[in-house]
Specification:
heterodimer, A: alpha/beta, 7 strands, 27% helix, B: 16 helices
């Protein structure tokens, strides 16, 4: 997410509780490209998802979304499929950190049960507002944690590190020749 | 007011006098462990892109364990890239096909009480058995760690879990964790689980590491066990002299825990987790009546193929045979464990019973290597998680049990309570 696209929107894809990172990024595709990996994202729980999700669509889920493995491919698959935002009741910690590091907003959304598949949703991750255009209901949620706001608004960890390095604010080893 | 162990560790790592739960701190990283699967192959291109190296080549540990041994051109290329990275960046600690990372950290004296460590694998929590912070992070976050040498954390609250009493015959640390996954659930994100009590004090480090490893299955930040003489002996055996203040790293008696649980090991029975999650567990005896046919029994992974685990397997298999129609595969957690189990006759007991030995590595546990299962097949495994599609086909079924329970299922050909088989042997 870049700073000029704070508002995101699309169709809702709804998932249940404890959707784990093994089904987001099955190990048997680990050696394949991210394109192949992402095409199998969540196929065990919804075979329609990866083939039909559109850029900007919103993933809505229950408790402990992303539980399990640390594999970044779980989070990267959603970025690769250009999912606009994730709205879950709660997250597994590594998955949550991975999502934010890839610059995809992951918001804690206690009212996830009120969203139906294919509802039209818009999300403003900076303001912490969610609107369900299909039902006409709107919600206020906690925005992205403040200490991560700069990183998210730059688009994730890589652009954030680049900015720090370019500004001479980061001491580290040299890249070997 | 007293402090918890995690608060003390994070205060030191962040250079503060003290910290409290909920506070956001930046911690200096004493050890950054990265692996062939999500390490150099993900991190190296990012270092090139940013034009920087690693913060300290003596604090970055590289382990090749997920794709070993290479089974196809892609995995061979990933392993070669991993070796090239180690040379190029002059990484001081590299383990190439020596075993699974979390076990190697313990075997080689890398972990000390009070340290702050990050690993590129969710079961990095295993290191917490040494009274240090060690937690799992994705490759993108480990990229930041190897560049900057630090990471942000929210200081976690601590759930205290005490076990008293002694295990009955055929009961093991794994049964504690399958029981806890059901009792505490998998949703304990940003909390630490600290284990204590006489049951844990009486455990070897190998058994304690089962508890901290599977803190990942509880969804916790990490698992912790305060150090004692058993911890220090293991550190020494790994070739490192423990720091003088090593035993000071413990929660104060008046520390504040967000929850305290007490359990009795005397009444714990062998546990089995049904597909497709570790919290889907219950007593093994309840599964026995269903006569669940087992195609594959798997002893492997960081959590379930240490020397203590192989001894449990041998205790069941001695004088018995793996049932026709069921295959038993055993992938010891490290080369050192393989060597020790060969020397003490454990491996011979396993192979004489019909068990098949596989190389040390993450292998089938994560669906990466030899031993994965087909559509419709049923496996019982000593590994730590059984999510759908993890061990091969998304239409396969994985049950979890202790090494006793997995070996007993291999002999019976279906899931059984292992206590009778273990009991007979100890007579």
């Amino acid at each position: 997410m870049s700073a000029d696209s704070k508002k995101l929107g699309g169709k809702a894809w709804v998932f249940g509780d404890e959707i784990n990172s093994d089904v987001m990024a099955p190990g048997i595709y680990f050696k394949e490209s991210m394109e192949v990996m992402a095409s199998h994202c969540l196929e065990a729980v919804n075979p329609e998802f990866a083939a039909n999700v559109q850029p900007g669509d919103i993933v809505v889920a229950g408790r402990a979304f992303g539980v399990g493995s640390a594999r970044e491919q779980a989070a990267l698959s959603f970025a690769h499929l250009k999912v606009g935002a994730i709205l879950a009741k709660s997250y597994a910690r590594i998955f949550y950190r991975n999502m934010l590091n890839f610059g995809v907003p992951a918001l804690i959304f206690p009212e996830a049960d009120e969203i139906n598949p294919k509802d039209e949703i818009t999300v403003d991750a900076i303001a912490g507002t969610i609107e369900n255009k299909t039902t006409g209901k709107s919600y206020t949620v906690s925005p992205i944690p403040e200490h991560l706001m700069e990183m998210i608004s730059l688009g994730g960890l890589m652009p954030y590190l680049k900015k720090k390095i370019d500004a001479g604010e980061l001491k580290t080893g040299a890249l070997p020749k | 007011m007293g402090k918890t162990l995690i608060e003390k560790i994070m205060a030191r790592a962040s250079g503060r006098e003290s910290v409290t739960p909920g506070e956001i701190v930046t911690c200096d990283v004493d050890l950054a462990m990265i692996l062939d699967s999500g390490g150099p192959r993900k991190i190296w291109p990012r270092l090139e892109q940013l034009g920087v190296g690693v913060y300290d080549n003596a604090k970055v540990v590289v382990v090749a364990d997920h794709f070993v041994p290479a089974a196809d051109p892609q995995s061979a290329a990933i392993l070669k890239l991993t070796r090239d990275f180690v040379k190029k960046f002059d990484i001081k600690h590299f383990y190439d096909m020596e075993g699974i990372c979390h076990v190697l950290m313990a075997e080689n004296g890398h972990l000390q009480p009070g340290m702050f460590c990050c690993g590129g694998d969710s079961h990095s929590t295993m290191g917490g058995a040494f009274g240090c912070y060690m937690a799992g992070f994705g490759a993108i976050e480990m990229t930041g760690v190897v560049i900057t040498g630090n990471i942000w954390s929210v200081v976690p609250e601590t759930i205290k879990v005490d076990w008293s009493g002694r295990f009955g015959t055929g009961v093991a640390a794994k049964d504690i964790m399958l029981h806890l996954a059901r009792e505490l659930g998998m949703e304990n994100a940003f909390k630490v689980v600290e284990y204590g009590g006489e049951t844990i004090r009486n455990m070897s480090m190998m058994e304690r590491m089962v508890l901290t490893n599977m803190a990942a299955e509880l969804g916790a930040e990490t698992g912790l066990i305060a150090p004692d003489e058993v911890t220090l002996e293991t550190i020494r055996a790994g070739g490192t002299e423990p720091a003088a203040d090593a035993l000071d790293w413990r929660s104060d008696d008046d520390a504040t825990f967000c929850a305290t649980h007490a359990f009795d090991a005397n009444t714990l029975t062998p546990q089995v987790a049904a597909p497709h999650k570790p919290s889907n567990s219950g007593p093994a005896e309840d599964f026995e009546k269903d006569q669940i046919h087992i195609d594959q029994a798997y002893i492997g992974a960081c959590v379930g193929a240490k020397l203590t685990d192989l001894h449990m397997v041998a205790a069941v298999l001695k004088g018995r045979k793996v049932k026709s129609g069921t295959r038993l595969m055993v992938a010891p957690s490290s080369k050192k464990i393989m060597t020790e189990a060969a020397a003490d006759g454990t491996l011979a007991t396993i192979t004489e019973a019909g068990g098949i030995l596989l190389p040390s590595g993450c292998g089938a546990c994560a669906g990466l290597g030899a031993g994965i299962i087909a559509e419709g097949e049923v496996c019982i495994s000593s590994t730590n998680r059984n999510f759908q599609g993890r061990m091969g086909s998304k239409d396969a079924f994985v049950y979890l049990g202790s090494p006793y329970t997995v070996a007993a299922a291999a002999v019976a050909g279906h899931i059984v309570d292992p206590r009778d088989m273990v009991g007979e042997m100890s007579k």
